[in-house]
Amino acid sequence: MDRQGNKYTFLYASVMVIVVATLLAFVSEALRPIQKKNEEESKMADILRSVNIQTTTADVAEKYQKYIGDNVFIVSYDGQRQEADAKTAFDVDLSVEIRKPLTERQYPVYECHLDNGDVKYILPVRGTGLWGPIWGYIALNADKNTIFGTTFSHKGETPGLGAEIATEAFQQQFKGKTIFDESGNLVSVAVVKGGAPDEAPHQVDAISGGTITSRGVENMLKDYFKGYEAFLKK
Amino acid sequence: MSSEKEPLFSSKNLKLLTNPLGSQNPITVQVLGICSALAVTAKLEPAIVMSLSVIFVLIFSNLIISLLRNTIPSRIRIIVQLTIVASLVILVDQVLKAFAYEVSKQLSVFVGLIITNCIIMGRLEAFALGNKPWPSVLDGLGNGAGYGLILVIVAFFRELLGTGNLTLPGIGEIQIIPDALYNAGYVNNGLMILPPMALITVGIIIWVQRSRNKDLIDAS
């Protein structure tokens, strides 16, 4: 056949597309269960890290069962606990919820029982950074006011700048901050430029060169604490 | 075909491997792949992982295109190349997500960036389309390594001078600049972390290379 003719060209393109599409579809289907397990385990590891429990891929599922297990539930904007089992609550996809108005979202809460008997409430949060989504988990003490720990992750913030929100140094700053002021009004935690003193109850230091990501963290917290406000005030 | 008997690492083939490291370096001489060189060199670790991914994609896309080179209709050759590169990148991404989830999280957007890396399309078009599979593999390895070499050099200086640390895959952050130096008044240069300094660092490497090898200087 004429290798430069139209017929050959069309045939070549069609065969190539079919072969490539089949291959990719096959690989994607074959690997999906493993990928899904990885994603779930990574989510469990993130959740546990917010209460300072370090895990490895080998023991994450076991530790999650031990500390959280079935103590996962969904609350609504007005603070009502919804009828839902732990699996449904764990599977709530914040990237879908975030498109709904604040009042209609489902808000999962992870209740964590530590070794010393303390109860921590872990709230997932999600927002936008500079290049894409950022998300995290905020662990609150039983008073539902003082932050016990945080973890933040991101899809693709700039390494060395915005991506620093995923570092210990940034996350440790939130420890001990409170989200309600003395008269009980929600103030959240602000991410401020130029350094926040340790004793400032509602402020942490922003990342130099990562202004938009820092602001994204601030807005994300403000947004989600607002959504959880009714539950937290109970 | 006398070249069938050519030894695997004949001097001609070795040149394919070593030239891109020096006088034919894709970044400093051909000035290709600059975009990703700026994006991933703020830290050493993503630079190393990115280099390895590019080497992998470059070797295999070169090999596949070289095997198919006599069948590809010339009018749609760019589309064919693009399809193969994109499929390989998606394949790498899927496999990483399944078997090396942590690495895939670190790479995140960079994996997608490999598709847009002009070195890959450049090598397919300039080399693999007209050469046998084995030299094409060597060419892919050589150019990938040449790219990686510059990336690692740039990332080394940017991270060291910008943060005082070096991040290695599997080991994590290591503080290089001793505390004593900080106490003596040394301050990290935050500018090194920002993208413009990557361009300036690449510029300095080009300058050093050309002042040592006069053949590279463009007379016009």
From TrEMBL, chain A:
Sequence intervals crossing the membrane: 9-27
The protein's assembly and partners: Composed of six subunits; NqrA, NqrB, NqrC, NqrD, NqrE and NqrF.
Organism of derivation: Thermophagus xiamenensis
Taxon lineage: Bacteria, Pseudomonadati, Bacteroidota, Bacteroidia, Marinilabiliales
Catalytic activity: a ubiquinone + n Na(+)(in) + NADH + H(+) = a ubiquinol + n Na(+)(out) + NAD(+)
Subcellular location: Cell membrane
Protein purpose: NQR complex catalyzes the reduction of ubiquinone-1 to ubiquinol by two successive reactions, coupled with the transport of Na(+) ions from the cytoplasm to the periplasm. NqrA to NqrE are probably involved in the second step, the conversion of ubisemiquinone to ubiquinol.
Keyword match Coiled coil: no
Keywords attached to this entry: Cell inner membrane, Cell membrane, Flavoprotein, FMN, Ion transport, Membrane, NAD, Phosphoprotein, Sodium, Sodium transport, Translocase, Transmembrane, Transmembrane helix, Transport, Ubiquinone
Name by which UniProt lists this protein: Na(+)-translocating NADH-quinone reductase subunit C
UniProt GO molecular function: FMN binding; oxidoreductase activity, acting on NAD(P)H, quinone or similar compound as acceptor
GO CC term, one of those recorded: plasma membrane
Cofactor(s) needed by this chain: FMN
InterPro entries for this protein: FMN-bd, NqrC
Membrane topology classification: Single-pass membrane protein
The protein's Enzyme Commission number: 7.2.1.1
Sites of FMN phosphoryl threonine modification: 211
Domain FMN-binding: 129-228
This protein's encoding gene: nqrC
TrEMBL record, chain B:
Secreted among keywords: no
GO cellular component: endomembrane system; plasma membrane
One GO BP: sodium ion transport
Membrane-spanning residues: 47-68, 107-124, 136-157, 190-208
Oligomer status and interactors: Composed of six subunits; NqrA, NqrB, NqrC, NqrD, NqrE and NqrF.
Record HAMAP family: NqrD
Descriptive protein name: Na(+)-translocating NADH-quinone reductase subunit D
Originating organism: Thermophagus xiamenensis
Phylogenetic classification of the source organism: Bacteria, Pseudomonadati, Bacteroidota, Bacteroidia, Marinilabiliales
